[in-house]
Design a protein that fits this description.
The protein is of the alpha+beta class. It has three domains: 1-148, no CATH class; 159-217, no CATH class; 234-389, no CATH class. The protein contains 14 helices and ten strands. Helix 10 (293-307) crosses helix 11. The model has no long low-confidence stretch (mean pLDDT 90). Bound molecules: zinc ion. Zinc ion binds next to helix 13. InterPro entries: Plavaka. It holds the Pfam family Plavaka.
Length: 390
């Protein structure tokens, strides 16, 4: 890791700007120019994930990891490139009434913020950290760059109300609940620490779907916790949009085609011939609630063949099978494009088009069948916040 460590912004000498590594980003360029001239930027990435520790899902831990943006992507994705800094304590409630009480939830939030304070105070607004890299001592200025978290964690870090029923259900922006399934907005009003502090001081916290307590991240200079928080691809896509896509498809078949089509879909999933590296789900989609991200990835590898020519006739309000195939195709093309390590401006525009087209089609096809009518925070995040994060 030492050998490949990057000290400076890299994008000066290329004709075409690329977005891939953190040290190629505009954020890096701007931040580097703000720190003392002799110092190097140390980009700190926080990664949080509630891990289930047993098969029944009864015990879980809340580890916080740290990694560095100075490490190139290919290396940062390896397990040894992230360091466990600690487990956040979990408050246990004596009974369900306590667990669901507002005072208990408030206490949970306070403990969370207090722990972050303890963990992160050594790097907050610090200028000189001396680290040995490539056998030489270098002065670094540490800056938080990204917080990778699933949606629930994002809600904890930003202290926002996330359920799609709250008035402003996005941790990143101030979108109104009624627009959550609108994929054609031209303007999105973003959250900033200043706006949120003002809202709380003016007694507008619930109007902004934000908890009233102080957020520790507001104390970091030049840091927008709402913008810096990003869901990881696994939680956003594999366990998010992919899962909805498959569940809604089943629902659509059930309501607008026939139960026979639902059964055929299951049957076709298990009838896929074995292939090295491909996991076949023996029971089709029966145990869908227990599927892992890897199960979903494997389903998506074969889903086009499963859906193709699955039915001819459909009830009123249904869609032709070809159109159903097409939305999966759109999704797969977008998914693969999103996995690219690096993007040029042109490629980013292409990706944005793919995302927008997919999200619009998703909402058009499924709005009628989903109880929440496609008000899915993850779909909204995919549509509006993934490209700006890149
Ligand atoms: Zn948003």
């Amino acid at each position: 890791m030492n050998e490949e460590f990057v000290f400076k912004y890299k994008n000066h000498n290329t004709l075409i700007k690329t977005y891939g590594e953190q040290f190629e980003s505009n954020w890096w360029y701007i931040t580097e120019n703000k720190i003392p001239v002799d110092n190097k930027l140390l980009s700190i990435i926080i990664y949080a994930d509630s891990t289930t520790c047993d098969h029944l899902g009864k015990t879980s831990e809340h580890p916080i990891y740290i990694s560095l943006g100075n490490i190139p992507n290919w290396q940062r994705n390896k397990p040894n490139a992230k360091v466990l800094v600690g487990y956040l304590p979990k408050l246990k409630a004596k009974d369900n009434t306590t667990r669901n009480s507002e005072s208990f939830r408030r206490l949970q939030r306070l403990v969370f913020q207090r722990c972050l304070r303890i963990l992160l105070s050594p790097i907050m607004n610090q200028n000189d950290m001396y680290l040995v890299v490539q056998n030489k001592i270098h002065p670094f200025t540490p800056k938080l760059s990204v917080i990778l978290a699933d949606m629930a964690e994002a809600g904890a870090f930003t202290a926002t109300y996330l359920p799609s029923t709250s008035k402003r259900p996005c941790y990143y922006c101030l979108i109104n609940n009624k627009d959550l399934n609108n994929m054609a907005l031209s303007h999105i009003d973003l959250r900033t620490p200043e706006k949120m502090k003002l809202a709380i001081s003016e007694n507008q916290a619930s109007e902004f779907s934000i908890h009233k307590e102080f957020n520790y991240f507001w104390d970091f200079d030049d840091f927008n916790i709402y913008e810096a928080t990003a869901p990881d691809r696994m939680h956003l896509l594999d366990l998010g949009v992919t899962k909805y896509l498959i569940e809604f498809t089943r629902e659509l078949l059930h309501r607008k085609v026939s139960n026979r089509a639902v059964k055929d879909m299951d049957h076709r999933l298990c009838a896929i011939p074995r292939y090295p590296g491909l996991i076949i789900l023996k029971n089709g989609l029966e145990n869908i609630s227990k599927f892992t991200a890897n199960d979903y990835r494997n389903i998506m590898k074969v889903i086009i063949f499963v859906i193709d020519n699955l039915y001819d006739d459909y009830k009123e309000g249904g869609i032709p099978c070809k159109r159903l195939c097409n939305i999966f195709h759109k999704y797969l093309v977008m998914y693969m494009k999103l996995r690219q390590e690096s993007f040029t401006d042109t490629e980013l525009t292409e990706l944005e088009t793919l995302i927008t087209e997919f999200c619009q089609e998703f909402v058009t096809i499924f709005a009628e069948y989903s109880p929440s009518r496609c008000k899915i925070p993850k779909l909204h995040v995919l549509r509006y916040h993934v490209i700006p994060s890149i």
